[in-house]
Amino acid sequence: MADLRPIRLGVNVDHVATVRNARGGRHPDPVRAAKAAIAAGASGITAHLREDRRHITDDDVRRLMAEISAPLNLEMAATEEMLAIALRTRPHASCIVPEKRTERTTEGGLDAAGAGAALAPVVAKLAAAGIRVSLFVEPEQKQIEAAAAIRAAVVELHTGAWCEAHMAGDAAGAKVEFERIRTVARTAARLGLEVHAGHGLDFTTAEEIAALTEIVELNIGHFLVGEALFSGFEPTIRTMRAAMDRGRARARGRAA
Ligand code: PXP
C-alpha cells in the first residue's frame, strides 16, 4: 500500500564527531548539529556508537538523549556491550549494523539470513524494552524474509551499491541496483516491515528514492556534513528536505 505521507529524514551526526575528534576537545559538537538539523526539518537524529568510539562517544549518546527533542536512532553492533548500553539509554530506535574494526564505514548489510539465531535474542530484548528495532540489510529477498522471521519492526535497506553506481556514472548498474531496492522495499512492506533506507545518499539519489512510497525514512550523514562546509548545516538540511519532498510529490502525482 502506498504511503504518501512525507518521507522522514534522519540526520546522522557521526561525522560532526569525526571532525571534532580529529583535534579532541568539544568543537564541532554533534549535539549542536543535531539541534540545528531538527530546527531545519530533520525528523530524527541517528548516531552510531562504534565499538572503537571513533566518532560518537558514550557521552554524546547521553547528551543526545537528554538534549534533543526528536527521536534518536542509535546504530549499534549486536554485541553484549551495545545491547547493555541501548537497554540503559532507551533510544526511540536501534538500528543493528554489522561492524568491523578495520572498515572505514559500515560496509555491506547485516547477514540476517545467516546470523538469525544470534540476532533474534538481541531483537527480542530491545523490543521488550520498547525500542523500535531496525536491521540494516542489503536489498535482498532472503535478508528481508529473515528480518521478518526474527520479528524486527523495521528494515533499513543499504543503498551503498546503488549510490556508488550512480556516482560512477554507471547508468545501467544504477538501474539494476535501484530495481533491487524497489522490489525488496515492496516485499518488506508486504511482510509488514517498516522500510527505511540509507548509505551514500546525496541530494539527487535522495530525491529519486523518495519516490518509492514503501520507504518511510531515509538516514543520511556523510554527504550532509560535507556539503555543510560549503552551504552551512541548516541550509543543507533544508535543501535535502526539499529534495525528498520533490521526490515524494512525484509519487503522489503518479498515485493521483
Ligand atoms: N544508515 C546506516 C545503517 C549507516 O550505517 C549509515 C552510515 O553510518 C548511514 C545510514 C548513513 O550513511 P551516509 O553517512 O553515507 O549518509
Structure description:
- The protein is an alpha/beta fold and 256 residues long.
- The chain has a single domain (8-255), classed as Aldolase class I (TIM Barrel, Alpha-Beta Barrel), CATH 3.20.20.
- It is 51% helix and 16% strand.
- The chain contains eleven helices and eight strands.
- It has an eight-stranded parallel barrel, surrounded by eight helices.
- Strand 3, helix 4 and strand 4 (93-96) form a beta-alpha-beta unit.
- 45% of the residues are buried.
- Pyridoxine-5'-phosphate is lined by residues 12, 14, 48, 75, 95, 97, 105-106, 136, 156, 198-201, 219-223.
Task: Summarize the SSE layout with pairings.
Elements: E1 8-12, H1 14-23, H2 30-39, E2 44-48, H3 58-67, E3 72-76, H4 80-89, E4 93-96, H5 116-128, E5 132-137, H6 141-149, E6 154-158, H7 160-167, H8 171-190, E7 194-198, H9 203-209, E8 215-220, H10 222-231, H11 233-255
Parallel strand pairs: 1-2, 1-8, 2-3, 3-4, 4-5, 5-6, 6-7, 7-8
Helix pairs in contact: 2-3, 7-8, 9-11, 10-11
The structure holds pyridoxine-5'-phosphate.
Shape: globular
Low-confidence stretches at least 5 residues in length (pLDDT < 50)?
none
CATH topology: TIM Barrel
Determine Rg (CA atoms, Å): 17 Å
* Helix content class: 40-55%
Task: Briefly summarize what is shown.
Helix 2 runs parallel beside helix 3 (58-67), helix 7 packs antiparallel against helix 8 (171-190) and helix 10 crosses helix 11.
